[in-house]
Specification:
324 residues, alpha/beta, D-Maltodextrin-Binding Protein, domain 2, 9-stranded mixed beta sheet, 13 helices, disordered N terminus
Length: 324
């Protein structure tokens, strides 16, 4: 039995982002189905989690006819504020808590994993050179903090004079927090045209060939096909500052490769994060508890459909233990 457990653990770590069938070894459903649970609650917060939360809520309410769930898409900061102010029962959280938020007594549980991607328009006239040499962390910092924004020639060491049209986030997003932290800055340091949410960011970048922005990694791909969104290119990172993209720095074109890169540590760790659900103290409401148990059991099958990376068995055991 011990030998079998070790083999299963190794398999899980390496293939953490492979689709997992409901009811497979290591997955235990601990919530009840039917109409035995009733109530209503509100979930507010991160754009990164909104798509999967809507799917989870719909599926859960189909199982439990007497439960009503409201989803508020506001960004992590507003979701945490709603939670503390009593306007939400759960918060969707895509960044580490600040000191005052931890002191408020917020309890958190991991539910999925994602990263943040730098994106440009696929028709950018400088794209061939950009994809060949990538952008170093210093160049990414310059792109998102300089005012006015740099020219593409300045970023790529060419004579090009076209200035980058940079987009940033207007809302209190975990993606902005993660990107700024990548080069040891704060979200307030990010410069550019402000947009709200990943969908508006994607739309703006798709419609301007000189644009650059950032989004949650899952939004850069089509959830149905797994392929990269049309007219969007993910910028490769020149992590060793040699002005060329090596084998492990090569960008990925599909969500499967992206997820594998996140879990195997190929994608920059500082641009990856656990996505969490939080509450004020450990949840006690039966409907909320049943929903959270659903999320980390049968609900994990929906994570991939929403473009996110599923939790591996180690994270699942931690999440389930936190509810005991």
């Amino acid at each position: 039995m011990k030998k079998l457990t070790v083999l299963l653990l190794v398999f899980t770590i390496v293939f953490a982002c492979k689709p997992r069938r409901t009811g497979s070894p290591g997955t235990t459903s601990v919530y009840k189905t039917g109409n035995d649970i009733s109530g209503s609650f509100t979930i507010s917060g991160a754009y990164a989690l909104t798509a999967v939360l809507k799917k989870w809520a719909e599926d859960f309410m189909n199982i439990h006819d007497n439960v009503k769930i409201e989803i508020l898409e506001k960004g992590t900061g507003h979701g945490i504020a709603d939670l503390i102010d009593g306007k939400a029962d759960l918060a969707m959280i895509s960044r580490p808590l600040f000191d005052d938020e931890m002191e408020a007594g917020i309890w958190m549980m991991p539910v999925a994993k994602d990263g943040v991607a730098i994106i440009v328009n696929d028709n950018n006239p400088y794209l061939p050179r950009l994809m060949k040499q990538g952008l170093s962390p210093d160049e990414i910092q310059k792109l998102f903090t300089a005012s006015p924004s740099p020219t593409w020639g300045e970023l790529l060491d060419t004579t090009g004079s076209a200035r980058a049209v940079v987009y940033t986030r207007a809302d209190e997003s975990g993606a902005a927090e993660l990107l700024a932290g990548f080069f040891f800055r704060k979200p307030i340091d990010l410069k550019g045209i402000e947009v709200t949410g990943d969908e508006e960011m994607i739309d703006r970048v798709r419609n301007n060939i000189l644009s650059a922005g950032f989004c949650n990694l899952s939004y850069a791909f089509n959830n149905l096909t797994g392929e990269r969104i049309e007219n969007i290119q993910i910028v490769p990172f020149d992590l060793d500052y040699d002005n060329k993209i090596g084998k492990i720095e090569k960008p990925f074109s599909d969500i499967e490769t992206a997820h594998r890169s996140v879990w195997l540590g190929i994608y920059p760790e500082s641009l990856c994060r656990d996505l969490m659900l939080g509450s004020m103290g450990k949840p006690a409401d039966p409907a909320v508890l049943a929903f959270l148990n659903y999320v980390i059991n049968d609900g994990q099958r929906i994570v991939r459909e929403a473009g996110l990376c599923e939790l591996n068995n180690i994270s699942l055991r931690f999440a389930r233990g936190s509810l005991q």
